[in-house]
Structures
1.
Amino acid sequence: MPKIFDVHAHYRGGFGGRPGMPPSEPQESPQERMDYHALKLREAGVAKACILARGGVGISYEGAIKTMEPHLDLVVPVAHLDPEPSSMTPERLAELHSMGYRGIKINNTARDYDDPAYFPVYERAEELGMPILFHMGVTGGGLDYARTHPRRDPVAAEMYQRTVERLNNPPPPGQAQAGPFGGRRNMSANRMRPFHLDTLSTNFPRLKLIGAHLGGTGSYDEAASVARWRHFVYFDLSGGEIIERHAYERGYIGREIGVEKLVWGSDCSPDEVSTHVKRLEVIFDLLNLKPDERERIWYRNAAEVYGFEEPELAAP
């Protein structure tokens, strides 16, 4: 099994039972869910995993990191946050760092990622040595119309009906919509593009930046362009079967994007991690990647980003 560094594992400790648990089963505690996630990561060969905890959604930052403490040989705590000045300040970020959080995850912002309003948070992250993982492209979730449709899939039909029901019966003003597509949300893929990382890398040249999902479907060339010329910009291969297939078929692994600029993230339920690992191993076989090239993508690049390994440099 390869030694793996997972840069994109969402915290699932504060949201009730595990995915797939029958409704009649007792709800697990946040600690039990964290323990199970750690178990499945280890079984898949993951040696280090960035667990992305969004404080205040199901559990606080303080509560989330407490559940991670038994697994700190595996877990790298990452604070999933909103960089809006009303939501996050440099001082609060420093508190999270003191608490044990070693990186940041950002997505679905109200402004472009490179809006100057967010610069104070980025500046403090650079000072603290906290890498930032940015979601890139369209936000997934709910029905995947590339794979299914309510007219031919009963499960998809049920999901569609639930969405329509939420739209027809919105909650009172001020209450959040249930689920990712329960109603209007101020979100746009145009605010989450790889070219925004170019701006950030030039303004914060020591800040380590990771763009998720190879830059997002439809933005691979932007990602390749930024990775080509910016020292500390990387892209992860999370996002599932379609993005993995595109990365292979369109030559983005080791050709359009050098192997030193790619990292891996699961971005899936704990029970699916091993499947994602095995599928990417097949892709690496098809590409005839050398052992050191595989090791770069699976572990070494991310380990250097997070400071677990010193950067390797060619001898004169």
Note: The two ends are 33 Å apart (CA to CA).
2.
Amino acid sequence: MRPLVPGIVAVTCALGITHARADHLDDQLGPREIAVGEAMRAGAIGAIAIGLNPSGLPLNRELVFEGGYGYRTSDSASLVSVSACDSTNAAPGCFFYSYAGSHPDLGGMELSRSTHVGGMALSRMLVPRVLLGGTVKYFRTSSDVPGEEDAKGFTFDLGATVRLTERINLGVSGQNLWSTEESAQFPRAIGGGVLARPIPMFTLSFDSRWKTEGDGGARFGGGAEYFIRLRDMGIPLRAGALHDNGLDATYVTGGIGIATMRFTIDVGARHEIRGGDETVILASMRLFGPRLAAPSLGALGE
């Protein structure tokens, strides 16, 4: 039996690495936030608010339906999401569902892990310039990876956005702050960021996120978006970078889109250049209903 010991230790180490890279903090992100280094907590509109900061929903006024699909190479994961967000009313909100299914290959043995999440996000202006929001999620996870247990329950997020000026926002959020059942795939985390728009077509953003349990670690990212306006459409170009000191991993990110008044298609990618060779590619399509002018600071105070 002694020759088996090194093998067991090696598999255990591999499981630890795979487990550390699998949680819904990352699985629920879409192509736009991925493309700018996950730095959108201070400008989390539409479906971005679901995974980063629910308070950002009132930053625009639109009814939008979004569906997305992604693939992650490190564990052959499929990432699926659908949402409906309405920020044209007095209490902006989103309904959403997401699925993450992966098949990590450990020593030639293919295992499986799946996560289903559905819920609702709501936001409201507390005082002029300050927006608050919350998200309730129901999750169900199943896994045959040794050391991981099936789980189901509810978990809750909170967030706040402060509009310092028409061009600068601050955002902060806490994810999985309270849960009815503990799950390693839903660790508690806090994050914050800043977004600046020096000119209407150009946006800069920077975020950071800290896990307060599990494998811990901090994640820092930033990026930029430049929106090219054509006659009947627009092309957003996005680029960024990301570092996770818990994984000792560094990534480059980027993306592109095609935007019209009726629909938008976005593609984003993240590639690991230090610490591994993980690649994530995401794409989504948004269909718009009624769209109103984005609220100014004066309008938020009315």
Note: The chain has one domain: 4-300.
3.
Amino acid sequence: MQEFDDIYNIEITKKYHNHENKRLSKRKNRKRAMGAGRYFKLDVKNRFLMLLVYYRLYITYTLAGFLFDLDQSNVYRDIQKIEGLIRKCLPIPQKIYKLTKRLQTPEEVEQYFPGFLAFIDSTTEQQIPRPVNNRRRKAYYSGKKKTHTVKTQVMVSKNGTIIHKAGHKKGRRHDYDIYKKNHPITPKEVVNVFDLGYLGIEKDFPDQLSSLPNRKKRDMKLSQEEIEYNKSHSKIRIVIEHTICRLKKYKILADVFRNKLRKYRKVSDIVSGLINYRIMNHHN
């Protein structure tokens, strides 16, 4: 409750007026004055609450309308109109990444990358409805999940903060291929921790520090030292799995994504920002 009140009182109330002015002024060939037309039945605080309920539970608009005493068409309108504002009020990965690219001193690097570690993963997949178009069906089909999906690559720090998040990619693409074309830049002192899906990264990106587990070769066993190293590597890398778990607690990123894909980035930004806000608020 305290975090909800802080986001609303400190961020939303200050930015709402300017956000509404910009939103209403975008329309060209306006025949009525700005602000004319239907008013929102709910105030800003309850619309923010409705967005959180919708993201967390991913209920239908019909049920959301019943809970908040709205018609289901108004639920869609209210959520859609406030998403841009909420996105501005949260520490989304893009904002943090702009800061981390300019880090200079070791003290600054330590602030955003505790232990000088960064954990990278692009295997977060979410199912989407089966595309009607044959080409899209083929492009979004994931051989790993045996269904149509979108993939999201994320980089997190040691405390679980989401530092970087690439836009969603088609499920057919390999994790490493996504990284090569959308890889985040980290300071030279930071060790980037990967799983075995990124084999070859040390050769392709020799200027960055990379850490991968040992791979078991055919007809050969790993030595005891290699086994122990893999165990310690997994214990360190579990941070990103916990972060992905936090993302999936929001059902809108766990269930079949029923909304338009053009909305996916905005949704994932807001969820990532909510997670970052909680982590930063907890550690502060």
Note: The chain has a mean pLDDT of 91.
4.
Amino acid sequence: MATVGKPLPQAPPAFGDVETGERDDGLLAFAPVRPRLFGIAYRMLGSAAEAEDIVQDVWLRWQSTNRRAVQNPPAYLATTTTRLCINLAQSAHTRRETYVGTWLPEPVDTGNDPTVGAERAEALKLAVLMLLEKLSPTERAAYVLREAFDYSYHQIADILQMEEANVRQLVSRARKHITDGRRTPVSADEQRRLLEAFIAAARKADMAALESLFSEDVVSTSDGGGIVRAARVPVVGRERVAKFIASAAHFWDGVTLAWVETNGQTAVLVSRDGVPVAITTIDASAQGIDQIVWILRPSKLAAISRSGQKSIDGQTSAA
């Protein structure tokens, strides 16, 4: 059996025999599972653009596959997707070591495209994706398949070419990593309320109000990718983060703010002259706001739909 450190093949073996029509191009089997394939790839890579590339690659491979020799197309396609993601994630870790500033996952619009989180919301929130970045690609795959898509340990073992006992260990370690790295989150309604209060205090540069919202060890993390101006290292601690936010009060001048749903939770889309310039959201627990995320790199804002969203002032906004 393969071990965690052994490279995985890019294409899975055939699972058996099934009859397909002579003119079948594979679309009938591929289309229904496409959302799941994207969901796996996105959670594995933290990038909607890379996930789309993976899904396209899987489609091209599927078209050239002897589909008569595939008994279980969904399993075959999920296996192909996972193994391609593991290969890409291994090189992505190296690329991100030279990334300018802090790399953050690319947000996805789950308000207009709920299929991304249709099966389970696990490993979808930005805070969890950020923690998953510290796992090995194989650990991340095991966690995503088990927690987000409810694959059995036996199925995951087949996909990863590992012993089932090893898969259980991978999932257990990943769960512990997530649990240790994040407090129990508040409800969706409370997250929205705290985000509203945070935006109001930030726009007024109200230090006292900001500090009252934060946990003692709150972290503010920005991703400008070297393309736009952004803090290159996370800002940590209640007082420091409050000062950092208050000192950037000019950021809110002349902008349009709209509520959006990204990665299954409320966020704010910030636009200037009709062009999105930032997505910001928070993660919060009973202690208050634990994490503030600022996505500023333009390419990471491209996947967010800008139509029919509710502006902060209560008007429908095209942002």
Note: DSSP finds ten helices and eight strands in the chain.
